[in-house]
Write a structure and sequence with these properties.
There is one protein chain. About 35% of the residues lie in helices and about 25% in strands. With about 250 residues, it is an alpha/beta fold. It has a single domain (about 5-250), classed as Metallo-beta-lactamase, Chain A (4-Layer Sandwich). Helix 1 (about 35-40) packs parallel to helix 3 and helix 5 (about 170-180) packs antiparallel against helix 6 (about 185-200). The radius of gyration is 18 Å and the shape is globular. The N and C termini lie far apart (about 40 Å). The relative contact order is 0.11. The structure holds zinc ion. Zinc ion binds near residues 54, 111 and 128.
């Protein structure tokens, strides 16, 4: 069994930590080394590897300090991005082993050109591609790239736990409810999220099944979503609706 914990960093990042039974661990997207080092010390853990989803500093900024503490650290990162100290460049459809579990590398182009995700039966680390009730900004790729990446994630089993890199859920829900005010699942989820955040609890991981019900960016074929963007696009194909939603969210 892989035990997965969240280490909060900066204002709203999560660094996910995967732990095995023998006090060894791997961290995903360590933007800040200090919070990781103090967690390792408190829990008496040894860091074996780092997994990186994309090049942004809030995901990679802690790599060099962590290597100073653990010189034999493996740094698994997207081959198509310039990641400092990367030891294991990986590409779409390749696999890596984490404590005897095989993770598939998924290309998730859109937020950045080389963005990747890590998937192992029921567990997904998707960086800044999919958030709960939202998706990442399309900085380097095209809307089509991002929509193709999200469709890959939509095809994963519904029970898949989605470990996103940011706690954006509450703000995303305000937008999602503007798009689909009548969506009962969304209304119910907002109450749940409000309770969690009031107690300073993470809303993550989410699941693919839940996101399919509440995330407007995964629902561009729903009549209520299409209606909400009808003044922004006359095309009702999923890609055009997705692009209209993303532009609306950018200015929301
Ligand atoms: Zn990013």
């Amino acid at each position: 069994m892989l035990n997965i914990k969240s280490i909060p960093a900066f204002r709203d990042n999560y660094i996910w930590l995967i732990q095995n039974q023998e006090q060894h661990c791997v961290v995903v997207d360590p933007g800040d080394a200090q919070v990781v080092l103090s967690y390792l010390q408190t829990h008496q853990l040894t860091l074996d590897a780092i997994l990186i989803t994309h090049h942004h500093a809030d995901h990679t900024g802690g790599i060099s300090d962590l290597i100073r503490h653990f010189p034999r650290l493996n740094v698994v990162a997207p081959a198509d991005e310039a990641i400092p100290s990367m030891t294991h460049p990986v590409r779409d459809a390749e696999q890596i082993e984490i404590f005897g579990h095989t993770f598939d590398i998924l290309s998730l182009k859109g937020h950045t050109l080389g963005h990747i995700g890590y998937y192992h039966q029921g567990i997904l680390f998707c960086g800044d591609t999919l958030f709960s009730a939202g998706c990442g900004r399309v900085f380097e790729g095209s809307y089509e790239d991002m929509w193709l990446s999200l469709q890959k994630l939509m095809a994963l089993p519904e029970e898949t736990k989605v470990y996103c890199a940011h706690e954006y859920t509450a703000a995303n829900l305000a937008f999602a409810l503007a798009v689909e005010p009548e969506n009962k699942d969304l209304q119910h989820y907002r109450e749940q999220v409000n309770r969690l955040r009031a107690n300073n609890q993470p809303t993550l991981p989410s699941t693919i099944g839940r996101e399919l019900k509440i995330n407007p960016f995964l629902r561009p074929s729903q009549p209520e979503v299409i209606k909400s963007v009808s003044d922004r696009t006359s095309n009702h194909d999923p890609l055009s609706v997705f692009a209209a939603l993303r532009e609306w969210k950018n200015e929301f």
